[in-house]
Amino acid sequence: MNSNEVALVTGGNKGIGHEIVRQLATRGFTVYLGARNPALGLAAAEELAGSDVRFVQLDVTDVASVQAAVEHIEADSGRLDVLINNAGIVSEWGTKVPDITAAQVRTAYDVNVFGVITTTQAGIPLLRQSPNARIVNMSSGLGSVNLLSDLDGRLNTQGLLAYSSSKAALNALTLLYAGALRPDGIKVNAATPGLVPTDLNTEATVDRGQRTPADGAVVPVLLATIPADGPTGVFRGPSALDEVALW
Question: Residues with catalytic annotation?
Answer without folding.
Answer: 163
